[in-house]
Design brief:
CATH superfamily: Phosphatidylinositol (PI) phosphodiesterase
Number of domains: 1
Oligomer: single chain
Distance between the termini: 16 Å
Strand content: 5-15%
Order of helices and strands: HEHHEEEEHEHHEEEHEHEEEH
Helix content: 10-25%
Number of strands: 13
CATH class: Alpha Beta
CATH topology: TIM Barrel
Shape: globular
Radius of gyration: 20 Å
C-alpha cells in the first residue's frame, strides 16, 4: 500500500494507456476529510464530534491515502488543524503533520507516488500567518515539492510523469503538490500577491489577481446525516456537473455554473482542468460523530456503490450497472472519514491482489490499474 501508485505505474507501462502518460484529471486517488483530526484537543465528551479519522497522517500515508484535507488554525505561534470549533493534530514543528509527510516522502524517494495536500479554511489567518505557514511547508517539504510553478502548467491537466519530473528530466520521483487555499466555499483573498512558490497551486477563481493556469476542484459535500440522501446527492452532482453552481461565493466575473461538459460523452473528460471530489461523508448529528457514521453507515456501503447496480447507463436509460470510468464522469478523489474502517475482502475461497486494502485505496488501485480508454474490463477481477 505505501507504493500502490508506483505499482500501477509499473503495471501499465507500455500499455494502451500508461499511468505515467495520463493527466491527473484521468487519475483517481483516495482522500481523507479533515485528515488532521485524528486526535482532539477538546473535552472528552466532545470527542465524537471533532474526530474524523482514527489514524495519524503517517499511518494514512502508509495505508495508501494520497489526498489530505488540512484546515489550519493557530495557537500562539503554532499551527494546528481543526474541525468546526474543535482542534485536531499539530501541523508544524518536528512532530507535526508536515514533518510526517516529509518523513514518508524520504522513504519513497525512488518510486513514483504523488501526495496532494489541500490547505484550506484558514481560521483567523493574516498575511504574516500565511507567510509563516508557507515557509514551514518549504522548510520541511522543499526537496519533495512538485518542481513546477503555476506559470509552467496546469496541475490537473498535466501528465503524471510530467508533474513528478523536473523540467528536462526523464526520471519521475515521488512528489508533493500543495493546493494552497484549496476551497471554493470561502471568500477570495490575496494570500501571496507575489505568487506561490514551486509546488504550490491556487484554485480558480480564489485569487483576485488571476494567476495563469489556474485549476478547479469540484468539492461539494452532501451535508446529509443519513446514507441514502448522501448517496443520491453525490450521484446527482457527479452526473449533472454541467448544471452545478460553481460556488455560493459572490465572486464578480466568476460565472454561475460549470460549462462545456457532457455527462454522457463517449469518452468523458469532465470539465477541462477540473478535479472531481466524490464526498462520501455524512454530516455529524448531535448523538453521533463522523467516525461512528463512517464505520457503521458510509464506508460499509462504499464498495457496493461502485461495483453494484447503482449507476445509470448512458443517455439516461433505466438499466443500472456498476461504475464505468469510460462512461461516467471521472471521479478523481474518493473522499471519506475513518478511511480504514472497512477493508476489501477477497471472494470466498480465493485470494485477491487488494486483500485488506482500505476500501477507498482498493477502489482507486483497481480503477487506475485497469482503466484503458477503449476497454474497461469491469469489476470481475476486483
Amino acid at each position: 500500500m505505501p507504493n500502490w501508485m508506483t505499482n500501477v505505474h509499473a503495471a501499465t507501462a507500455g500499455g494502451a494507456s500508461p499511468f505515467g502518460n495520463r493527466p491527473l484529471n484521468q487519475i483517481t486517488i483516495p482522500g481523507t476529510h479533515d485528515a488532521g483530526c485524528y486526535v482532539n484537543r477538546t473535552p472528552q465528551y466532545l470527542t465524537t464530534l471533532s474526530k474524523t479519522q482514527t489514524q495519524n497522517i503517517a499511518q494514512q500515508l502508509t495505508g495508501g491515502i494520497r489526498y489530505f484535507d488540512l484546515r489550519p488554525c493557530k495557537s500562539g505561534q503554532e499551527f494546528w488543524t481543526y474541525h468546526g470549533p474543535y482542534w485536531g493534530g499539530r501541523l508544524d514543528g518536528g512532530a507535526g503533520i508536515i514533518h510526517d509527510v516529509a518523513n514518508f516522502m524520504g522513504g519513497v524517494a525512488g518510486v513514483q507516488e504523488l501526495v496532494v495536500l489541500n490547505f484550506s479554511h484558514f481560521s483567523a489567518f493574516n498575511g504574516a500567518d500565511h507567510h509563516r505557514l508557507i515557509n514551514e511547508i518549504l522548510l520541511r517539504l522543499g526537496p519533495f515539492l512538485v518542481p513546477h510553478n503555476q506559470h509552467a502548467f496546469n496541475l490537473f491537466n498535466s501528465a503524471y510523469d510530467v508533474v513528478l519530473s523536473p523540467p528536462g528530466a526523464v526520471a519521475p520521483v515521488s512528489r508533493v503538490a500543495v493546493l494552497y487555499d484549496g476551497a471554493l466555499d470561502t471568500p477570495r483573498e490575496d494570500l501571496c500577491p507575489a505568487g506561490l512558490p514551486d509546488g504550490c497551486f491556487e484554485l480558480n477563481p480564489k485569487s483576485a489577481v488571476a494567476a495563469p493556469n489556474q485549476t478547479s476542484l469540484f468539492d461539494k459535500y452532501a451535508n446529509q446525516g443519513t446514507l441514502a440522501p448522501m448517496q443520491n446527492n453525490q450521484m446527482n452532482k457527479l452526473a449533472n456537473r454541467a448544471a452545478q453552481v460553481f460556488s455560493t461565493q459572490p465572486w464578480p466575473g466568476a460565472g454561475g455554473n460549470w460549462t462545456n461538459n457532457d455527462p454522457w460523452a463517449i469518452v468523458p473528460t469532465g470539465i477541462l482542468n477540473t478535479w472531481h471530489l466524490f464526498s462520501w461523508t455524512l454530516t455529524p448529528q448531535p448523538w453521533d460523530g463522523p467516525v461512528h457514521a463512517a464505520q457503521t453507515l458510509s464506508n460499509p456501503a462504499l464498495e457496493g456503490w461502485f461495483t453494484g447496480n447503482h449507476w445509470p447507463t448512458p443517455l439516461g436509460a433505466a438499466v443500472a450497472r456498476p461504475y464505468d470510468p469510460t462512461l461516467d464522469q471521472r471521479i478523481n478523489v474518493i473522499y471519506v472519514d475513518d478511511y480504514a474502517s472497512t477493508l476489501h475482502a477477497c471472494a470466498a475461497g480465493g485470494g485477491c491482489a487488494r486483500a485488506n486494502y482500505a476500501v477507498p485505496v482498493a477502489l482507486c488501485d483497481f480503477i487506475n490499474r485497469f482503466f484503458i480508454a477503449a476497454a474497461w474490463p469491469g469489476w470481475g477481477a476486483y
